[in-house]
Write a structure and sequence with these properties.
Elements (H helix, E strand, L loop, with lengths): L3 E7 L3 E7 L5 E8 L3 H13 L5 E8 L14 E2 L10 E2 H8 L4 E5 H12 L7 E7 L3 E7 L2 E3 L31 H5 L1 H8 L12 H20 L3 E5 L8 H13 L8 H4 E2 L7 H15 L6 E2 L1
Parallel strand pairs: 1-4, 4-7, 8-11, 10-13, 11-12
Antiparallel strand pairs: 1-2, 2-3, 5-6, 8-9, 9-10
Helix pairs in contact: 3-9, 6-7
The structure holds adenosine-5'-diphosphate and zinc ion (ZN).
């Protein structure tokens, strides 16, 4: 019988579930909207029930904040999310009750980072940091196969920004105003300009402002962690003119202060595109099936 692995990319807008073989080749992939835990998880279980007996483990990359501390009473829960029906939801417990399998549990952006690390641009490197610039901004770091984590997972998307010269947009993060997410995520762009980011022309002057905020993020990340590679993903990065603008603004800010790897290798959009997250979940499922007791965080 074939050994299969399950992945759940649990996003605030939609869930993507998939099953792969040992080479992480995706055999089936389904997607449905994120509604209530009862409704959405029923769809998750219906999907994986088909593979009972073949599945060796399931990897979950979830929207958060989530509890990743293995000795915590609420390990495996989604915690203080603004999505009310999911607050204090026991995600891993629900899966464990249904399946006697190792369940890997991390943030959605950590999963995407891991996907790129094992099967995308990060292959062969030891340290990769991944940001998603979409409905929110999130960041995750993998160092030698483990996730960077401390008292909890990082919340890199909420780093504070220096306002772009004469930018009077206050930002829309309810906690911090002008953090990266509050200034540069898709909904912030929409609030600032009154149209969805995907409708803006490539020559729209705003992209220089967006690039400046992302360049500040890359600058901070470079000097904080000195990773071998930084990947910028998420819907907003589908604007092809954006990455070159970010590179130029970042190099200007850095002023040659540290010798980074060649910029085109250092700063990339994801090789796996929209499959980075699911691939990471599948790879984590495989890893947890291989070594169910190993921890997956460093610090
Ligand atoms: P999510 O964050 O929900 O997983 P996405 O990464 O697709 O999903 O992010 C959605 C956000 O990205 C929306 O705010 C949308 O306006 C923006 N977006 C999606 N596609 C594009 C595009 N081609 N160009 C610019 N912005 C985009
Ligand atoms: Zn914030």
């Amino acid at each position: 019988m074939k050994m299969l692995f399950g992945g759940i990319e649990a996003g605030g807008t939609k869930f993507v579930c998939g099953v792969s073989d040992e080479q992480l080749q995706i055999i089936e992939r389904v997607s449905f909207p994120t509604t209530t835990p009862a409704e959405t998880m029923a769809q998750v279980l219906t999907f994986f029930d088909q593979y009972q007996g073949q599945l060796q483990g399931i990897g979950v990359g979830s929207f958060g904040p989530i509890d990743i501390k293995e000795n915590s009473a609420t390990y495996g829960y989604i915690t203080s999310t603004p999505k009310l029906p999911w607050q204090q939801y026991d995600f891993v417990g629900t899966l464990k009750a249904a399946y006697d399998l190792p369940i890997a549990w991390t943030t959605d952006v950590n999963a995407a980072c891991y996907g790129e690390y094992v099967a995308g641009h990060g292959q062969g490197l030891e340290s990769v940091i991944y940001y998603t610039i979409g409905t929110g901004v999130g960041g995750g770091a993998v160092v030698q196969g483990e996730f960077l984590a401390g008292f909890s997972h990082p919340e890199m998307g909420h780093m504070l920004m220096q306002p772009y010269p004469d930018d009077d947009f206050a930002g829309n993060c309810p906690f911090h105003g002008n953090c990266l997410e509050g200034l540069a995520a898709g909904p912030a762009i929409e609030k600032r300009l009154g149209v969805k980011a995907q409708t803006l022309a490539p020559k729209e002057p705003f992209w220089k402002i967006e690039a400046d905020y992302l360049a500040q993020c890359v600058y901070n990340t470079t000097l904080m962690y000195a990773p071998e590679q930084i990947i910028l993903g998420g819907g907003v990065m589908k604007q092809p003119q954006l990455l070159p603008l970010v590179k130029a603004a970042f190099l200007k800010k850095l002023q040659g202060y540290v010798a980074i790897p060649a910029i085109d290798e250092y700063l990339k959009t994801p090789a796996l595109g929209d499959n980075a997250g699911l691939t990471g979940c599948l790879a984590l499922a495989k890893k947890s099936a291989d070594s169910p007791v190993s921890s997956t965080s460093v610090l």
